[in-house]
Amino acid sequence: MSERTFVGLDVHARSTVACSIDAQTGEMTRARLTPELEDVWRWLQELPGPVAVAYEAGPTGFGLARFLSERQTRCVVAAPSKILRASGDRVKTDARDAQLLARLLLHGDLVPVTVPSRQAEAARDLVRAREDARSDLMRARHRLGKLLLRQGIVWSGGDAWTGKHDAWLRRQRFDDPARQVAFESDYEAVANIVARRDRLDAAIEAVAADSEFTAVVRRLGCLRGISTLTAFGLAVEIGDWHRFTGSSIGAFVGLTPSESSSGASRSLGSITKTGNTHARRLLVEAAWHHRRQNRAGKVMLDRWQHAPMPARLRGQEGNARLHARWRRFDERGKRPTIANVAIARELAGWCWSLAVMD
């Protein structure tokens, strides 16, 4: 490291607490700044240079990191879950947090997160808006279904939330005006969220067809269960696939077993569920598709037409192996939910192999 001054910033929406450490003199300086980027930059210029800066990843985003990088100042966005804290440290203030960041930056003990480009962050916002719509739709449907269930009205005409089910819902009438208004309100909420979800799906399809993620999306689509929506979500959430290997990406998405071992005793528990929650959910849902017979339908064949031949061959190899693993799990009587997590962990490795393919 060639820097002389190491700065820790505790960044909040309305204030920023700064602490700097001069590596040559050991002098420590503290300041309370406004969240304006120019105000932070003016204070940094008063310090003996070169300067290195660190702050925790959080809701304030990556604007400060990009701002400093454009001015040739090294900025580390630290992973909050990886910051070392003493077990006996029971006092937590903004000033102490900034000082801790400065010290860890000085000693090189911070684990950085990847700062996405502006385009990648915008694509991630789009994917997460679609995820929010999915969650809102599930809750709205539950509210509508439970309202009917309290009146003893249950749909029994096949799969729910189809066109036939929607026509049945629109025929429901209640004698009590208050209950009728409540039903119409819940039904309208479901219809509005469905329309919002469809608009987001169309936007994702358009962006995935012409963006920096297009090549990765088309290669990932060679695997069963990886639609354009799923492939685009994985691409923007994971970002730089070259950070990982086929065996380490499972740990990043929290699909590896937790472990508590001591001496000769080794105990494995449930999966860690750390890392990117959205990417983990997409992989777990996609893994269920490999339980069915390994046969390429029209949708899969259409996706293969947009992928290069090496990716198609690699995808077919992955589909065959994952289906074979599902069959072995079923023959052993493995609980399907546990088996599916194991398939999802291996599916993450196959996705990695396709994403890093030249």
Describe the structure.
52% of the residues lie in helices and 11% in strands. The protein has 358 residues and is an alpha/beta fold. It folds into 3 domains: 5-107, Nucleotidyltransferase, domain 5 (2-Layer Sandwich); 133-208, no CATH class; 214-355, no CATH class. Strands 3-2-1-4-5 form a 5-stranded mixed beta sheet. A two-stranded antiparallel ribbon has the order 6-7.
Q: What share of residues is helical?
A: 40-55%
Largest sheet: 5 strands, mixed
Q: Would you tell me the structural class of the helices and strands? A: alpha/beta
Radius of gyration: 25 Å
Q: Which spans have pLDDT < 50 for at least 5 consecutive residues?
A: none
- Please provide the count of β strands: 7
Q: Could you report the average pLDDT, rounded to the nearest whole number?
A: 92
Total domain units: 3
Helix count from the secondary structure assignment: 13
Give the strand order, joined by hyphens, for the main sheet: 3-2-1-4-5
How much β-strand is present in the residues?
A: 5-15%
- The coarse silhouette is globular
How far is the N terminus from the C terminus? 33 Å
Give a quick set of tags describing it.
358 residues; Nucleotidyltransferase, domain 5; 11% strand; five-stranded mixed β-sheet; alpha/beta
